[in-house]
Amino acid sequence: MSVRVKICGVTRPEDARAAWDAGADALGLNFYPRSPRYVEPAPAAALAKTRPALGAVVGVFVNETPVTILARVRECGLTAVQLHGDEPPEACTGYGVPIIKALRVRGEEDVERARTYVGVGDVAALLLDGAAPGYGGGGVTFDWSLVARLTDAGVSVLVAGGLTPGNVAEAVRATRPYGVDVASGVESRPGIKDVDAVRTFIRAAKAL
Ligand SMILES: O=C(O)c1ccccc1NCC(=O)[C@H](O)[C@H](O)COP(=O)(O)O
User: Fold this and answer.
1) Residue 185 CB neighbours (<10 A)
2) How far does residue 206's CA lie from ligand 1's centre (Å)?
3) Residue with the nearest Cα to atom 6 of ligand 1?
4) What is the pTM of this model?
5) Which protein residue has the closest C-alpha to ligand 1 atom 9?
6) Please, which pLDDT band fits residue 11 given cuts at 50, 70 and 90?
7) Total domain count, the chain
8) Measured from the CA of 141, which atom of ligand 1 is nearest?
9) Ligand 1: centre distance to CA 33 (Å)
10) Which GO terms describe its molecular function (predicted)?
11) Which CATH number belongs to the domain containing residue 194 in this structure?
12) Does the active-site annotation cover 8?
């Protein structure tokens, strides 16, 4: 099976439709108010409605309250939740949908920390991101050779951080992940997707 692709930080219906048409498996809607990709709940619900039968709509949260996360899941029809902040393992449950726990990777110790989330609560996959300043969407890669420590153990890993149409094929070759995720690498400016870049990215990711 080819690698799954999540296009993250979509803010416009036309970008959502273009991503699905290009073969995206999931879209990420960002509910972190400090992100340039932040979407309010009502437009997020409209974006989620573009979802095809087998597509996933993932809500991205950073250190958000459970009450707000649950509200967004219900009002926006989210099919998964991505916890992209400092949430501990015990916070990774309770939303009635699978959870993707994101962790920034600087070195081996972060991969070991990632292991503490495996099999916990509703964690269905880990997203490994680069360690840019801030919480995500920073366009910074990490040492992909570290991913094998998790995938060899059967963990579903989404590789993220600094992926572009130009390097995603190499990332997939190097890590054999469950999926890949991109935000800034397919944008003309933050929150605005470059449709040609989205298409090229998905084609390159799924070519192997
Ligand atoms: O994209 C953001 O602005 C963002 C802000 C805060 C937390 C998470 C955020 N994005 C989540 C993602 O899944 C990104 O796709 C991931 O960090 C990779 O981003 P990029 O390096 O720009 O492809």
Assistant:
1) 23
2) 21
3) 136
4) 0.97
5) 136
6) very high
7) 1
8) 21
9) 13
10) phosphoribosylanthranilate isomerase activity
11) 3.20.20.70
12) yes
